Amino acid sequence: MEDIRRGMIPAHIYNDKEIFEREKATVFSRSWLFVAHESEVPQAGDYVVRRVLEDSFIISRDSKGGIRAMFNMCLHRGMQVCRAEMGNASNFRCPYHGWSYRNDGRIIGLPFHEEAYGGEEGFKKKGQTLLPAPNLDSYNGMIFINMDPNAESLSDYLGDFKFYLDYYTKQSESGLEVRGPQRWRVKANWKIGAENFAGDMYHTPQTHTSVVEIGLFREPKAEKRKDGATYWAGPGGGTTYKLPDGTFDERMQYVGYTAEMTDRAKDVWSDEQQRVIGADGFMISAASVFPNLSFVHNWPKVEDGDDVLPFISIRLWQPISENETEVLSFFAVDRSAPEEFKKKSYKAYLMCFGSTGMFEQDDVENWVSLTNTSAGSMARRLLLNSRMGLLEDGTRVSEELTADEFHGPGTAQVGYNEANQRKLLEMWADYLEKPALEVGPTSVGTDNPDGIRPMTPTNGSCDHAAGTHSKDATVNGAVLA
Predict the structure, then answer these.
(1) What are the tens digits of pLDDT across the range 260-290?
(2) Same domain, 168 and 127
(3) 295 is in which domain, residue-wise?
(4) Burial label, 42 (beta-carbon count in 10 A; 0-12, 13-18, 19+)
């Protein structure tokens, strides 16, 4: 761990079964994990099924408009209750023995309750529900769960990164709408993608040279990436492009936003958020939030000519094993955007990312090779050098940008460096050193005081018209309402 904290990375951490088991017990049991966006379940009864490692959760909007996150296992014999990946249902019926549950998780049907159990005396049906996620909360419509019932609030966890998260997830009062996810598996370790999106501008001139050479982007050279800034704040960080001189409005137009969309962004972004673009000249690009959530914002050409169209993608690096990852890639766009903009933005997304995107193909080739090479005995002898941007004594090659040069929170610097990759792995090392989460079993159908509790909101508030929950809401126990 000390090697990692000084930027020297044991190569085998990218393909090590013992380390992966430790990650499951510490990293993914204690972090806030993105599972869905509220726009995926806009109507009462809408649901999607999402997985966190081996655990399947039903994310539903119940009949009263609340968002639920329920473990997808029947309380009787453990059958998966919901078999479809998405849909609309007032209730879920287990196909094994017919137990049925409302879309808020409450038991509504137990065949032969009186004959088989002696009614309530044998099995107390009242108040029993599907097992809720230990912690559930949302920010700008993005729904997160945490497996630790005593976790810090989502707002505290995201911290200063919320400043940057707004660029991706709140470009107007209407919030986002998302499509997807596209989903595929790659034979690569989950950490590699998270590190790449967090701050790897250095690979662009090498890995993605062809994408620039064919004229997909306005900038003539991939090396222009070094003129952007990398930033780190709270549990995440990302990269930016340096834009040509101009005002906030002119720079938004340069990357393809209409005047109306720019005006709507000014209504929801703070003065400081606008200054990062308008005064400092930096436009957000890729970013990662620990442990496995990433974003990308880019503006390729989608038709002949010089016009570009921006797109946003949200993605999860969902671990399958130490050497396989399921990628979930969502297209995201401002709900208030013109329909023609949405259509072209989606086309831009498909060209670049998603299962057939040009950037995607370039990246995965590297990540699979890295993972394979990390599996052998020689990898255990090698410490990879991840100290780009540092001199031998730890001094930065480039000074941090001042508050007048970069108006966002956290730290930022210009030029090639691996500061963000180091920060991400430092957090990873900190979590690996935490004790494994230990939670006792939950009994159902009895008077056990530790049994499943009714799912009720605690101090959370929601604006369903906008599809977003209050930023400071802390909801414990599986419902946002």
Answers:
(1) 999 999 999 999 999 999 999 999 999 999 9
(2) no
(3) 160-433
(4) exposed
